[in-house]
Amino acid sequence: xxxKSDAIPPLEELAAxxxxxxxxxxxxxxxxxxxxxxxxYQGRALAMVSPATLAEVVAVVRFAAAHRLPIVPxxxxxxxxxxxxxxxxxxxxxxxxxxMNKIRSIRQADNAMVVEAGVILTxxxxxxxxxxxxxxxxxxxxxxxxxxxxxxxxxxxxxxxxFGPMRALVLGIEAVLPDGSVIESxxxxxxxxxxxDLRQLLCGAEGTLGVVTAVxxxxxxxxxxxxVAWVGLDSPQAALDLLRRLEQRLGDSVEGFELVPDIxxxxxxRHIPGTRAPLATDCxxxxxxxxxxxxxxxxxxxxxxxxxxxxxxxxxxxxxMIAANGAQxxxxxxxxxSISEAERHxxxxxxxxVSVAVxxxxxxxxxxxxxxxxxxxxxxxxxxxxxxxxxVHFNVRAALGADSQAWLVREGHDVTAFVxxxxxxxxxxxxxxxGIGQIKLAEFARISEPARLNMLRAIKxxxxxxxxMNPGKLLPLAPEDSIP
Length: 484
Known about the structure:
Layout: H1 12-22, E1 23-24, H2 27-30, E2 47-49, H3 54-67, E3 71-74, E4 93-96, E5 103-107, E6 112-116, H4 121-130, E7 133-134, H5 147-152, H6 160-163, H7 166-169, E8 170-176, E9 182-185, H8 198-202, E10 211-218, E11 220-221, E12 225-233, H9 236-250, E13 254-261, H10 262-271, E14 285-293, H11 299-313, E15 319-322, H12 326-337, H13 339-346, E16 349-350, E17 353-355, H14 361-375, E18 380-386, E19 391-397, H15 404-425, H16 441-447, H17 450-463
Parallel strand pairs: 2-4, 3-4
Antiparallel strand pairs: 1-2, 5-6, 6-10, 7-11, 8-9, 8-10, 12-14, 12-15, 13-14, 13-18, 16-19, 17-19, 18-19
Helix pairs in contact: 9-11, 9-14, 10-13
């Protein structure tokens, strides 16, 4: 006799609720969504459910809770840490949020927009611009990443320096908890002191505490002045010094400050068609700078140009190019956004999304790279990222001519452990903006202090006692938390 966990539940109940567009067991329908974006994990699902309304999400969660079925919420499936695909047990419901893709309202007087979880980030940008506002978060996957996924992973991106990550941009939230109850808190309140901040608790929870169905996003005024520049310098420390001088002279107009090593630019120029070097002078390091102002005029560009002129005259900047128009600005951002794609063309790498204090980032980039290359002879480190917020994409590639996939299987674990130990020594975090997912699960447990893990486990157990919400992500389930 099968116990409850082995029995196939009456899925026809779900099929009747969701209809043909919202329910599928067709392997061909599910296949594209069962492999993670980096193609390292392949899962299986009992069915794929695609609710179109809050009521349908509630029905799915209540059905799963009643039958102790795991639920794996998924948006655009762009997770870098395999946080949105099920395991290979075949027992999970893959909960696609892509049909919940409505922009419910734009509240111009509140500088706020209410959107459903399945709305793609690019569509949020476009809708905000139509009313003279903007949503100040962007990243390379903006054309496929959904708002629900960005909230659930507390995504960062290129404008965190000025506006913060998703946590700073979510004013309200609507979510279905593991028992099927609903949090409806979409009011755009700037102050709300009713105890624990449930909105923030769900941001970054990676779908382990409930299903985010809609959020209220913070909007800001549209830019009337924009300055984008590519700057060549000698070192990461020179880059940080430039950032601080720009902030002193230009205030909080500095929105993006991306550190790019010459090896990363060389990969982009080699592998990405249509790209070209912005400067005539080759430099060991570059920064991509973006500044913006909401007032009309050309004062910002003049002030920015004056800072660069002073830096070049002082010998602190080697060369620089200021974009003359929007097309040139986008071409510069295309260079930065194409680094990951160029790396994939060059072979598999051990990738690490880490953070350290901003003041420590220049030293960490240089010393950690040297330490890794000494410990693992022949490997090549590419360290780049968001210097303004201390986020380093620290990627380690196999030696030239080596089979990169075989190398990753053979040495990837040891490389990652070594890098993470360096991060801990620097007082940093092994996850800056991608989350934990499955890929970082073991390392998160290995290097985290017990108090942190105990608190996270206690929250998970309190809200999801049967462990049905995205099991095997963010935190390894303790025996008492496993699905009965």
